[in-house]
Design a protein that fits this description.
- By secondary structure, this protein is mostly helical.
- The protein is built from 13 helices and six strands.
- The strands form three sheets. Strands 1-3 form a two-stranded parallel sheet. Strands 2-4 form a two-stranded parallel sheet. Strands 5-6 form a two-stranded antiparallel sheet.
- α2 runs parallel beside α4.
- The longest helix is centred in the N-terminal third of the chain and has 32 residues.
- The chain is globular.
- Pathway: Porphyrin-containing compound metabolism; chlorophyll biosynthesis (light-independent).
- This is Magnesium-protoporphyrin IX monomethyl ester [oxidative] cyclase.
- It is found in: Plastid, Chloroplast.
């Protein structure tokens, strides 16, 4: 079975939009006081211990079918989707596993929660890697562990970013599942049938990080926290939008319009985040998605320039206008006044 990459493969190259591996201040994490929200953590731990998906990730006979009927282009798009998803899940496993180990003596409740979440992430990554195997490829997770650079985030940034990534993961999975439930002819591979239960793991993980944020009110109840929440909302939404713009053909292969799909996922995630974050983004303002479209088109130009054989200096100067416009529009997105979450919550009650 062929590995999907080697040490010299360009796929290993890090970019701002690739799934990242994270590390944090474990000493600060070990001193975390969660006494403001202990009962919710105990309830979440009970949920994790129940392991509702213990028998869910079992491959059925449909996986034995040959997928040679997929076109070459569709197959490549789908394998890339599996690779990115597997890498993201494995990244979560590594972080949660290490947090569990570091917190075992100082905070056993959090340690067990992280341990059981790492179990879920490992299960997801393994299931995805088996799917990659159906295409006679494999993702070398051991090589990934050693080769990837680890991005340091302070605990509060881990809480913001991971809460959003888990919640947006829920809405991405459930939106695809519901679409394919209505249009089964677009279900090109059986893994999509597993998304309904699968996304409940993402939802529970998001609830855990919401509980962590609630246990640390200083991360939610002041001006600085509002600015950080806005930053992470913009970052997570823009990253998804730019990534999916590049891969619109993949979504087309399963009967989805990438832009409409992202708009729905962003809307739902924005609503979910408003239940925890003090602010939500004003995504109904016409310029919000218009600026995301500009960012996506400029990012596509940067990708095309990377593919050319120009020398590095020439390529750098050709990229400057695209970088400038992309950066300017991201700043302008950030400057769109947010909406107080209390208003959003009243609207959707």
């Amino acid at each position: 079975m062929q590995s999907t990459f080697s040490e010299t493969d360009p796929k290993v190259k890090e970019t701002l939009l690739t799934p990242r591996f994270y590390t944090t201040d474990f000493e600060e994490m070990s001193q975390l006081d969660i006494s403001l929200n202990t009962e919710e953590f105990k309830a979440l731990l009970k949920e994790f211990r129940a392991d509702y998906n213990k028998k869910h990730f079992i491959r059925d006979e449909e996986f034995n079918n040959s997928w040679t009927n997929l076109s070459y282009e569709t197959k490549n798009l789908f394998v890339e989707f599996l690779e990115r998803s597997c890498t993201a899940e494995f990244s979560g496993f590594l972080l949660y596993k290490e947090l569990s180990r570091r917190l075992e003596k100082t905070n056993p409740i959090l340690a067990e929660c992280f341990l059981l979440m790492s179990r879920d992430e490992a299960r997801h990554a393994g299931f995805l890697n088996k799917a990659i195997g159906d295409f006679n490829l494999s993702l070398d997770l051991g090589f990934l562990t050693k080769s990837r650079k680890y991005t340091f985030f302070s605990p509060k940034f881990i809480f913001y970013a991971t809460y959003l990534s888990e919640k947006i993961g829920y809405w991405r999975y459930i939106t695809i599942y519901r679409h394919l439930e209505k249009h089964p002819k677009h279900r090109i591979y059986p893994i999509f049938k597993f998304f309904e239960n699968w996304c409940q793991d993402e939802n529970r993980h998001g609830d855990f990080f919401a509980a962590l944020l609630k246990s640390q009110p200083q991360f939610l109840n002041n001006t600085k926290s509002k600015l950080w929440c806005r930053f992470f909302l913009i970052s997570v939404f823009a990253t998804m939008y730019l990534n999916d713009f590049q891969r619109s053909d993949f979504y087309k292969s399963i009967g989805l319009d990438a832009r409409q799909y992202d708009m729905q996922v962003i809307r739902k995630t924005n609503e979910s985040a408003s239940r925890i974050f003090p602010i939500a983004l004003n995504i109904d303002k016409p310029e919000f998605f218009k600026r995301l479209d500009i960012c996506a088109s400029k990012n596509k130009i940067l990708i095309e320039l990377d593919k050319k054989n120009d020398n590095l200096i020439s390529k750098f100067f050709k990229k400057i206008p695209a970088y400038y416009t992309l950066g300017l529009n991201l700043i302008q997105l950030y400057l769109i006044p947010p909406i107080e979450s209390s208003y959003i919550n009243k609207k959707f009650k």
